[in-house]
Amino acid sequence: MSASQLARGSAHAQGAARPTATLRPCRGPAPFRSSVVRPIVASAAPAAQDAPAPKQQKQQKQQKQQQKQGGGGGGKAAEAAVTPRSEDFSKWYLDVVAKAELADYGPVRGTMVIRPYGYSIWESIQSYLDARFKELGVQNAYFPQLIPYSFITKEAEHVEGFAPELALVTKGGGKDLEEPLVVRPTSETIVNHMFSQWIQSYRDLPMRVNQWCNVHRWEMRTRPFVRTLEFLWQEGHTAHATPEEAEAEARRMIDVYTAFACDMAAMPVVPGRKSRIESFAGANCTYTIEAMMGDQKALQAGTSHNLGTNFARAFGTQYLDKESKRQPVHQSSWGVSTRFIGGIIMTHGDDKGLRLPPRLAPIQVVIIPIVKKEEDRPAVNEAAAALEAAAKAAGIRVKVDSDERQTPGWKYNHWEMRGVPVRVEVGPKDVASGTCVTARRDMGKEGKQMGVPMEAGAFAAHVQGLLDDIQRGLAEQAKAFRDENIVDVKTYDELKAAIAEGKWARGGWAASDEDEKRVKEETQATLRCFPFEQPAGPHTCLMTGKPAAEVAIFAKSY
Amino acid sequence: MSASQLARGSAHAQGAARPTATLRPCRGPAPFRSSVVRPIVASAAPAAQDAPAPKQQKQQKQQKQQQKQGGGGGGKAAEAAVTPRSEDFSKWYLDVVAKAELADYGPVRGTMVIRPYGYSIWESIQSYLDARFKELGVQNAYFPQLIPYSFITKEAEHVEGFAPELALVTKGGGKDLEEPLVVRPTSETIVNHMFSQWIQSYRDLPMRVNQWCNVHRWEMRTRPFVRTLEFLWQEGHTAHATPEEAEAEARRMIDVYTAFACDMAAMPVVPGRKSRIESFAGANCTYTIEAMMGDQKALQAGTSHNLGTNFARAFGTQYLDKESKRQPVHQSSWGVSTRFIGGIIMTHGDDKGLRLPPRLAPIQVVIIPIVKKEEDRPAVNEAAAALEAAAKAAGIRVKVDSDERQTPGWKYNHWEMRGVPVRVEVGPKDVASGTCVTARRDMGKEGKQMGVPMEAGAFAAHVQGLLDDIQRGLAEQAKAFRDENIVDVKTYDELKAAIAEGKWARGGWAASDEDEKRVKEETQATLRCFPFEQPAGPHTCLMTGKPAAEVAIFAKSY
């Protein structure tokens, strides 16, 4: 599937044009949320079609066929087929998603098929976060996806935020339903419906549950991983006896996300607090991790919310305290979604495709046997298998690509496109000398190393060293890029200049919601967060010139 | 929540009365499928209500409160509160689901909340199967949940089977959709839509994907785990170059399910082939594992389908063979769902609650410190922690319940209800003698053993031995029960007599579809399967008296 097809998708269920461009509160534990959505991808074509038209389909098949058959030539064509990142970042992104076979468009406008390689990245994310949540006493559960419409209306801000983008089930088993059912956009309402039955006394608190599931939000402008009608995520929901505990939980979870982004994904995110108008619909306070993409746009990559007693009061989620008085619980919710995969692509990718941080890479090392004469094959394959075993024994995720139908050159491109951090080459001469060659995905020719010993322990140690270096290198590179592109501003004019250059603008902020909206209207930049890490003060509000307690970051965003 | 409330649930979205009771093909890779659905649970009350009425809710809270506060007395009340299995199997089941906190009703009729303890059983199931699938070369992926209605109609039998129980999204983002979208009941159609784009040549085959997801089927008679409007499952979908490979794959996967059921869940299932009219809507052939529940009813606990080229032809899923000729792919699909948890409960549970097979138990061993004098607490807790560490080091899933607010007796009941296979008791005298006490969940007092050494290696070996014995014991008990309750029949009268006694009837079968329907109408028993393991022939058809190539099993079922 070509990038332009990816960008267009097929237009099955036509949605409405985006109703209004007015600012409204951010409505999700959603990493997906940001109230300004710039049309990065052309909107869905108006013609409805079930599947690619026959001609298109045929072209695709031919293209794929050619690519495969031509693969023998060395795959340079495949490499050139990715739009350079510097030329058109948006097209580059769609090319990488398509060519690394991470995702494909579903038949319904705005939906996405997560292909096996893309899904394996999600499994890496799940594996880390799920273990971390469990260490913190969170238990997984599953709440029904279909929610009575009346639930959504119980919390006033929540319904205002979510109503415009709900998918509704109105028919079931061949009959019209009496009340439409909401296809879960997030689960605070149904979780509180259950919590109100499960929580009786202070002894039941804290209660911490999480679910891994799909959610739907009827978005108009979609983009694979970054913003889709349906996405996968985890949503954690907790209830506590005191406001302090709920606040601590919301902060703890944004810390978990920060550590995950920095340590595992090599994404040097900026954690901070959202402004009131950018907070989740129904939250007292929203925390976020903001990541800088390769085009300097901000991506909200995870959020946690202190919900206060807003949902508890709407749903009667109360507990008996030690004095036997009824009290509403204090709550938090928090989520990370498949959007994070988009963040990884746009943080680390280059003109050769994806670059995966080793700790999250489903395949950390690919071993490529190089065989020119058939008689060499058994010895080379045997050596490759021994290297594979050595890496596996050291806990390294490794794959041997011994497909005889493709050339080594084609395979190099193939696995570079997929971002595998380390490549190992082994041919007959290597076998003879008891060594092999390693190549780093994050470097060009200078990352190639000959004469790496094949002895199991030494080989594994060498490869583990490379993986550690690459992990650190990607993080440093991303951090340097981020820091270069954050500009301290003292006035609104400086902010406008910084944003016009594509930078993030950081400056004192103590102005009104109206002023914040004005910045958005005039610059398309939004207040991303008040970072937890504040530069030394005092600060002056860039808009009003009055003293400001904090600096905020403004940026254009996904 | 009391059992009667569980049985009734709250009636939110009213569905229609079951349209007709006519026999129609079984419609899913669904373990949930069986075309005879007997009203085991009273149908939903007609009154719509969002939540338990205030009075009900208050009663619930009081009950729960009493249970908690009264817990200090030893929990005998809690034990007595489960309806004896022999008295009312159906009520017993609902009691266990409620009291072991496995699931709860969702607000929408027929939906279920999977509570953390129930979900942890699902995680055990996932963990085993997911690893097994990966060993077999299956890759996980994710396909959109919303499917264009037109897709469902492309395969004639498929639409006939599924149309009556679809949930439809007709509104999105505040607008009516041009075409309703089906909330996935199963994914053969959308998978083929994508496969037709991904598969070009024989080199792309076999293609094997699986997804873990939720599906919806608008069922009228629901029951937690066993049959719910929404359930969780895995659905595998494969495409092959030849009919032989697709057949081998369908057989391989039913073998995986059989091994899982027998080895992990201690459920001695009968694997076999479904009759034509009981097969999946769109399959050439359906394989099933049939389990006998504690009330002798059959439960279809997993299925795999040889889909032939039915979906491939409907969706144009073709490949170029080595002679460059276009050929349709040959396919299989296969699934196991949260229904399996219902199967475990109804296979192994007893009057004290759940009994979990050790290999699937989220907690295999619970350690209960017994402290009467406060001064003993530190030494006893220290001993408990040492035992926990010893078990953990041996790879045993262990929990110490050191909650000071509950008595040991209350805890015994609590963990027996939850089916934890082994209990370890440790008190001051044990500490003094360097020993502890173990108790088996599958036995009464005779399963209690004093003087078990506390030394780490010896303790872990002893406990592991108990777990192995319990695993084997549960499987043997279930197998003996099953074998006692299968009756060989030679005539239709014998079949009727066996079914009337609640048994499974096994006999030669070579009669018509009409005859099969007649059996169902007259006895409520369905043809569960032609077992792979056939008794030595020759066989005579119990209905027609003619020679029969195979015996079939008939039984009443869930």
From TrEMBL, chains A, B:
Domain Aminoacyl-transfer RNA synthetases class-II family profile: 109-357
PANTHER family with a match to the protein in the record: PROLINE--TRNA LIGASE, CHLOROPLASTIC_MITOCHONDRIAL (PTHR43382:SF3), PROLYL-TRNA SYNTHETASE (PTHR43382)
Annotated spans, Disordered: 1-30, 43-83
Biased composition (Low complexity): 43-68
Pfam families per UniProt: HGTP_anticodon, ProRS-C_1, tRNA-synt_2b
Protein name in UniProt: proline--tRNA ligase
Sorted UniProt keywords: Aminoacyl-tRNA synthetase, ATP-binding, Ligase, Nucleotide-binding
